[in-house]
Amino acid sequence: MRVARTAAEFRAACDELRSGQARGLALVPTMGALHEGHRSLMRLGRREAHAVAVTIFVNPTQFGPNEDFARYPRDLEGDVAACAAEGVELVFAPAPDEMYPRGDATRVRVEGLTERLCGPLRPGHFEGVATVVAKLFAVTGPCKAIFGRKDYQQLKVVERLARDLLLPVTVVGHPTIRDADGLALSSRNRYLSPPEREQALAIPRALARAASAFASGERDPERLRAVAHAVLEASELRLQYLDVLDADELAPPSAGSALGVFVAGYLGKTRLIDNSILGVDAPPPA
Ligand code: AMP
């Protein structure tokens, strides 16, 4: 397995891995602190392509001034070992000035999809995500890029940017990987104290409640929201949003919309997000 530190080295290695291989290259962009969710993305990459490249970059532009950029978990050695254990061919771990050269003045903004959910709560976040992903796609070249549905709004933003900028990238979504008790895996879960982690289970339980109401025939977005809200209200989660939206547009649903339930909130200093696309995702264990 090769670990590239510069964009030029990574681009050349991607070209090499693609050459003469009809099944091409899979790309798994991450911020490191790799867990089983990330590893499952790598395994999907392996099924989708001939070779797998993982990027590890804690992207400064997607963190707000009061967010956890400085304390975000970093463990390059452990991450490289995890990639090697998954049989990954190539890792790209650039320094910040490799991704943002001096004088960098270009940003990518995706409109519409970023108007709700995390968009207004994290000003600049999706611009940072879209910018870094556009750069990663530019250095990688043609590939299948694997993104988790755990960050569903991010997945939609990335799909749209690949389409709108005519990039030679097919974006593939991967289902959310959860612990046995239902909590979605996240690099930020390690911030949770044991009592906070217990309280966090209200999130998958609320999603499971909405999924079960949907399975019983409920289609009214307000009533679906209400059953999920009843669970969250009884917990210590400081709710930022609980929205039932059109799952494609991330906008208020109309008759016949595919429905997604989207949650964000804080336990202590830790921000958690989760979602379930009703009738599509396997509901979290209740
Ligand atoms: P991150 O390192 O948190 O930026 O995540 C890198 C990629 O892994 C993103 O596409 C995430 O959506 C995905 N990911 C993170 N956690 C999970 C999870 N529990 N299940 C599936 N994908 C995940």
Overall geometric form: globular
- CA(first)-CA(last) distance: 40 Å
One letter per element, helices H and strands E, the order comes to: EHEHEHEHHHEHEHHHEEE
Helix content: 25-40%
Cα-atom radius of gyration: 19 Å
pLDDT below 50 for ≥5 consecutive residues: which ranges?
A: none
Q: Output the strand order for the largest sheet.
A: 1-4-3-2-5-6
Largest sheet: 6 strands, parallel
> Which secondary-structure class do the elements indicate?
alpha/beta
Roughly what fraction of the amino acids lie in strands?
Answer: 15-25%
Give the helix tally: 10
Mean pLDDT: 98
Number of strands: 9
Bound molecules: adenosine monophosphate
What labels would you give this structure?
six-stranded parallel beta sheet; three-stranded antiparallel beta sheet; 10 helices; binds adenosine monophosphate; globular; alpha/beta; 286 residues
Walk me through this protein's architecture.
With 286 residues, the protein is an alpha/beta fold. Helix content is 37%, strand content 20%. The protein has ten helices and nine strands. The chain has helices spanning 7-18, 36-48, 76-85, 96-99, 118-121, 125-140, 152-164, 194-200, 202-215, 221-233, and strands at residues 2-4, 25-30, 51-56, 90-92, 143-148, 169-174, 238-246, 259-267, 270-277. Strands 1-4-3-2-5-6 form a six-stranded parallel β-sheet, with helices on both faces. The protein has a three-stranded antiparallel β-sheet with strand order 7-8-9, covered by helices on one side. Helix 7 (152-164) links the parallel strand 5 (143-148) and strand 6. Helix 9 (202-215) runs antiparallel to helix 10 (221-233). The radius of gyration is 19 Å and the shape is globular. The structure holds adenosine monophosphate. Adenosine monophosphate binds next to helix 2 and strand 5.
